[in-house]
Design a protein that fits this description.
The protein is of the alpha/beta class. It is built from 14 helices and ten strands.
Amino acid sequence: MQIAQMKPLLQILTLIGAYDIIKLSFQYPCDKGNVGCVKRKKKVDYLILSAQTREASHKGKRLGNIPYKVGFMVTCLVNSFRPPVGFASIKLLENAGCEVTVPPTQTCCGQPSYNSGDTAGTIGLAKKTIQEFEKFDYMVAPSGSCMGAVKAYPSLFEAGDQWKDRAEKLANKSYELTQFLCAILKYKPTAKFEESFTYHDACTGLRELKIKNQPRALLKEVGANLHEMEDGDVCCGFGGLFSIKYSDISDRIVNQKTDNIKDTDITHLLGGDLGCLINMAGKLKRGGSNIEVRHLAEVLSGLALEPPIMGEEKK
């Protein structure tokens, strides 16, 4: 389902916020894959909160108590496979005092087309993304991979092209979720998650965006017990199109990665990029593991209540 097709629902999300859209998803469940329409195994009453009861931290507000206006990029994988990551991310941003908008006609960041050599198609998607998000104070996404693509937009345009200037301005105010929470908002989550976990550092986030300490610092705040796996900063074998083009190599890499995960004394595998998490979760499941796999936004927000991406849900 294309994000543009979700316009009515995303307009509701923009107007009434993440908590109330979760409430609507309980009342009006629909087909799998639609944001806000995920079927849930259990109803969690305390998620259904009114706008008046939301935490209103001022750490994310500018001088004069004016909230930052944040454009939230859903990302293709969150939209199609794990909408709760979007809900959780928006809750974190709202708790930090931001005014969050989800542009209803946003599309893919263009990374898959760029990696497949379709430069013209990538430029079209880049222009669309620039138009959608340049009006906000910041652009935020729960994916270092997608933000890495946005940061690379200026390289798509020639010097003197007005699009290059617009691309640079957007790139300079675009952040992966944990980057933004730590560097801009100085936010400390208040949820509790006193479980043992290991963390996977996704390639783009680690190598291009220098995301390493930020997720660990945030998870420490909620009481999570970190056990670093061997080679935690090594690729999981996904790499988007890489896993399709070079499936044999990809499989060998993820085999080693999941062996390292299973050798670590933990109950949860966490990470910040859904593509990596889905890849590792699939391999763990086929290997008979019950390790619970989640995006860290679900843990930090206190919304780790959906069935995990993979693993036995804790009762």
